[in-house]
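Researcher: We plan to redesign the surface later, but first we want a full-length starting point. Tokens attached.
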């Protein structure tokens, strides 16, 4: 009845969340919702945040003195987009489908000392402008000599920094002319077209004109009547006080053979894909080989031990034997701080369920980059709803440890991990607020997160705990003595800290190649969409966490040390330490972050990631060791 009840509750949650997502945000599948445009139809370009890999602090597009439309309209963003710092708004750039335009003047403005300083700061920090057309992000094509297909850089730089010949002083130049290229795939039957590409080449041009400026003034640097276009040979526009800036753009339309369903393929092309594939396959082969060796050794050794123990005929022979059988009366003794262990295990189950379901939908293509913020939104909602399993797992383990206050363990499971993460997140958000960045989570969104936590997650944890605690307690296969057995002195190589740190190396080795690409996608503003390989790496991570924990647990029991509960959790969980060390190495070798606030954001978020990885891998190792010990002690004859 308990299992049926928790299953019914889970089904209700899944259906409710699906309906909620359908009514709140349109669920996007690549290739399902194309939009057809006829010649002359308006194409509205939207602007998104300004991003920089040097500061990791996004800013609203209109935080700089760019041209503004008459009325700025904010697009509705989902929860994931808001948490990512996306601020999608309309722009004065409006195209007509399949109607090229040349040297359109957007606006004319004069910089003052303050706006010039802001532009210089953004150029110094290498900020990029992000735009969107028909849900496609704007990219700058980067040619590659060794391959035909170009690479794409998301967004274009606000400007560039350089020096005049013979001068050592840095000069800042503003990109004020944009040459857009809209690629489309035409349907010959209906003569409609679908947008399959949105590219730009930015220029810095000091526009010139004759006479006084008016709405009908014709530029001499680019003229649609004379078909004079902007090129890199034009004089660049310096950023300075009282500098006149004229923003212009061209737009060209190119027919493409790329179909609408495949338009994201070029965006997802990785520059070092051959190295990526080779490294992943190589890592998987090594880990699979080691896992096979470990499994063979363990099976043969255990089979010999069990056969030998079961062949002992007298009690005297049994007493003369040494090994893991001698600690059978202590191996299932309740560990110290068992309540905290139950909380960590329950949280790990919650994480495992969230990651598994997220991976499943990502592999099917539901969480494509075309659905901005979809991945983060899905993970957040899944985390909240998987609190049901967290409460169930923690209360089941708590009852096995002879606990009686299930409400207390449910309360701690509800608040321990989320509370810690929320506290760190709140501090980091305060730092972002101090920088006046659009990445700061608004108060309304923060309130929505608290409502999800207290209104959904906490009740579900209590519901799961209630169901789990009503089930019969898990009984150990052997009895436990009232007086604990003395643990003999251990050699140095069986020291618990040494074994814990050794145990985390193999699980980390299974993921560190893929970790490089994940960190690159997060901190260098690139797309990551190889969820198939990520799912394989996740399975390998499960296997290695389980096997390394079982092996070290077996060695520990053979040396008559029965304190395995916490050690099994920490053995595989210690891989999180190596993850954080690698993240530190990545920070100093791959990133160019110099601002203290940006560094604090990086290490703060990576600390949360390492903490989450610790909870996940530790729980995997714990359950593997629990199943292992129950199996081996149930297989021998105990008088």
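Model: Full-length starting sequence:
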């Amino acid at each position: 009845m308990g299992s049926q009840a928790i299953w019914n509750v889970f089904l209700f949650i899944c259906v409710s969340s699906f309906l909620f997502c359908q009514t709140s945000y349109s669920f996007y599948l690549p290739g399902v919702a194309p939009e057809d445009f006829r010649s002359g139809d308006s194409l509205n370009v939207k602007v998104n945040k300004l991003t920089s890999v040097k500061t990791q602090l996004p800013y609203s597009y209109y935080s700089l003195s760019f041209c503004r439309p008459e009325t700025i309209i904010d697009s509705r963003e989902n929860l994931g987009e808001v948490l990512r710092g996306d601020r999608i708004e309309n722009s004065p750039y409006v195209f007509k489908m399949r109607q090229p335009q040349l040297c359109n003047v957007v606006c004319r403005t004069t910089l003052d000392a303050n706006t010039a300083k802001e532009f210089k700061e953004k150029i110094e920090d290498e900020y990029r402008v992000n735009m969107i057309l028909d849900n496609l992000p704007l990219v700058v094509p980067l040619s590659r000599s060794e391959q035909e297909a170009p690479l794409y850089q998301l967004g274009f730089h606000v400007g560039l920094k350089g020096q005049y010949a013979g001068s050592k002083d840095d000069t800042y130049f503003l990109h004020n002319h944009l040459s857009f290229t809209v690629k489309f795939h035409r349907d010959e039957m209906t003569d409609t077209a679908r947008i399959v590409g949105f590219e730009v080449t930015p220029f810095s041009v000091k526009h010139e004109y004759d006479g006084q400026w008016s709405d009908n003034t014709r530029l001499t640097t680019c003229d649609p009547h004379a078909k004079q276009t902007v090129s890199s040979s034009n004089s660049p526009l310096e950023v300075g006080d009282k500098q006149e800036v004229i923003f212009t753009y061209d737009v060209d339309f190119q027919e493409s053979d790329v179909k609408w369903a495949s338009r994201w393929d070029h965006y997802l092309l990785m520059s070092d894909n051959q190295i990526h594939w080779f490294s992943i396959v190589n890592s998987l082969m090594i880990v699979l080989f080691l896992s096979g060796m470990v499994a063979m050794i363990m099976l043969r050794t255990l089979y010999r031990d069990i056969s030998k123990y079961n062949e002992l005929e007298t009690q005297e022979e049994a007493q003369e034997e040494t090994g893991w059988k001698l600690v059978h009366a202590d191996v299932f003794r309740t560990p110290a701080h068992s309540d905290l262990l139950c909380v960590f295990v329950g949280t790990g189950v919650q994480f495992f369920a969230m990651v598994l379901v997220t991976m499943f939908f990502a592999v099917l293509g539901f969480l494509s980059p075309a659905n901005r913020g979809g991945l983060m939104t899905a993970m957040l909602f899944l985390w909240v709803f998987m609190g049901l399993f967290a409460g169930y797992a923690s209360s089941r383990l708590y009852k096995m440890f002879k606990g009686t206050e299930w409400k207390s363990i449910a309360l701690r499971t509800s608040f321990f991990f989320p509370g810690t993460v929320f506290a760190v997140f709140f501090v980091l958000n305060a730092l972002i607020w101090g920088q006046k960045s659009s990445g700061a989570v608004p108060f309304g969104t923060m309130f929505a997160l608290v409502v999800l936590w207290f209104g959904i997650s906490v009740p579900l944890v209590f519901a799961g705990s209630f169901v789990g605690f009503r089930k019969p307690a898990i009984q150990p296969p052997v009895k436990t003595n009232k007086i604990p057995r003395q643990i003999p002195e251990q050699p140095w190589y069986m020291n618990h800290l040494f074994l814990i740190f050794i145990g985390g190396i193999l699980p980390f080795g299974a993921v560190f190649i893929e970790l490089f690409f994940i960190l690159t996608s997060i901190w260098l503003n690139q797309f990551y969409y190889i969820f198939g390989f990520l799912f394989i790496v996740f399975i390998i991570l499960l296997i290695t966490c389980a096997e390394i924990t079982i092996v070290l647990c077996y060695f520990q029991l053979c040396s008559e040390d029965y304190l395995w509960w916490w050690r099994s959790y920490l053995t595989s969980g210690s891989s999180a330490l190596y993850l954080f060390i690698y993240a530190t190495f990545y920070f100093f070798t791959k990133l160019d972050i110099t601002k203290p606030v940006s560094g604090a954001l990086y290490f703060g978020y990576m600390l949360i990631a390492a903490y989450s990885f610790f909870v996940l891998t530790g729980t995997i190792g714990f359950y593997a060791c629990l199943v292992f010990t129950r199996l081996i002690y149930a297989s021998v004859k105990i008088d």
